């Protein structure tokens, strides 16, 4: 049985520091961008994320790429 993964969606998530809670722990806020081109390279997504950081009030903590695939039995 041969199984392949067909990518169907890519999402870019930016995680920003959003202050602290009452115990002094850092809180985070996420911004998600859907329908990202699946052929976009990691470097391209990183460059977009850092460009968007300049437009934000909070410090960028993490850049995430989430790819979703469907497994198909051939």
From TrEMBL:
Q: What InterPro entries has UniProt attached to this entry?
A: DUF1659
Q: Please give one Pfam family short name.
A: DUF1659
Residue intervals of the DUF1659 domain: 2-72
Protein's name according to its UniProt entry: DUF1659 domain-containing protein
* Native species: Halobacillus seohaensis
Q: What is the lineage of its organism?
A: Bacteria, Bacillati, Bacillota, Bacilli, Bacillales
């Amino acid at each position: 049985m041969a199984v392949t993964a067909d990518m169907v969606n890519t999402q870019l998530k930016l995680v920003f520091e959003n202050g602290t809670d009452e115990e002094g722990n850092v809180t985070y806020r996420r911004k998600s961008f859907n329908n990202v081109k699946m052929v976009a390279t990691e470097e391209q997504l990183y460059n977009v994320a850092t460009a968007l950081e300049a437009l934000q009030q909070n410090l960028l903590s993490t850049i995430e790429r989430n790819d979703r695939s469907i497994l198909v039995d051939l």
